[in-house]
Automatic annotation (TrEMBL):
This is Dephospho-CoA kinase. Belongs to the CoaE family. It comes from Flavobacterium hydrophilum. Its EC number is 2.7.1.24. Its main location: cytoplasm. Pathway: Cofactor biosynthesis; coenzyme A biosynthesis; CoA from (R)-pantothenate: step 5/5. Coiled coil: none annotated.
Length: 198
């Protein structure tokens, strides 16, 4: 049976960067953030978001993600409400994706809130990607043209590295990309996963 590797880490730790490297090496990767974004364009989910958050988070039927982010990352009850709309849809979508990839020995499920959502329980192995908080904040400010306060608001809704690390099988320190990639190769070897030559 295909084994699920959960790949997690706080905002800006570099988990998508690391996930992409696993993919380069030949492991199929499901990026929960990206798939959630696509699912949030479905009519059913749009209606559910409207019923909870109102029409004001939409502009001509297009979700204003920044506006919704402002609401939910300042209020954990609202974030839980949004999560309970999106997470079941992502779970279902992932299960269908997994079926399509059932010939692989391992696949990767990449999600920032793997532990917070409880989805780590569906994983056979969990890898946490880490980097110092200040570095993560700087990366996100640069990537998203956002403010320190906005990044901190998201961080407050996530577990701390210490909490993630104790529940993980492997930890990849992504302070430095070259070293982090070497860690990926080590894990592939330990798990006996055949690598693409790249
Ligand atoms: C609030 C939304 C619209 C903001 O969208 P935006 O494009 O600004 O952010 P994006 O989705 O790309 O997420 C960027 C990062 O924010 C953090 N983040 C996103 N969702 C959550 C959450 N529910 N809890 C904690 N942190 C989160 C993660 O570090 C994530 O990698 C969006 O994040 C959302 O719908 N979140 C709830 C659904 C969810 O949990 N998605 C994540 C994977 S299932
Ligand atoms: N080792 C590194 N050195 C420098 N920059 C990096 C490194 N790893 C990732 N980055 C950059 O930092 C930013 C955040 O990385 P990435 O998007 O992979 O993080 P993430 O953990 O998936 O974030 P989020 O939780 O927001 O989705 C990106 O712009 C990426 O190119």
């Amino acid at each position: 049976m295909t084994k699920i590797i959960g790949l997690t880490g706080g905002i800006g730790s570099g988990k998508t960067t690391i996930a992409n490297y696993f993919e380069e090496k030949g492991v199929p990767v499901y990026i929960a953030d990206n798939e959630a974004k696509k699912l949030m364009q479905s009519k059913l989910i749009i209606e559910e978001i409207k019923s909870v958050f109102g029409e004001t988070v939409f502009e001509s039927e297009v979700l204003n993600r920044a506006k919704l982010a402002e609401i939910v990352f300042g209020n954990s009850d609202k974030l839980n409400q949004l999560n309970s709309i999106i997470h079941p849809a992502v779970k279902k979508d992932f299960e269908a994706w997994l079926q399509k990839n059932k010939n692989y020995d391992y696949v990767i499920y990449e999600a920032a809130i793997l532990f917070e959502s409880g989805r780590y329980k569906d994983c056979d192995i969990v890898i946490t990607v880490t980097a110092p908080e200040e570095v993560r904040i700087e990366r996100v400010i640069k990537r998203d043209k956002t403010t320190k306060e906005q990044v901190l608001n998201r961080m407050k809704m996530q577990w701390k590295d210490e909490e993630r690390i104790v529940k993980s099988n492997y930890v990849i320190n992504n302070d430095n990309l070259k070293n982090a990639k070497e860690e990926v190769v080590k894990i592939l070897k330990i798990l006996n996963i055949k690598q693409n030559q790249s």
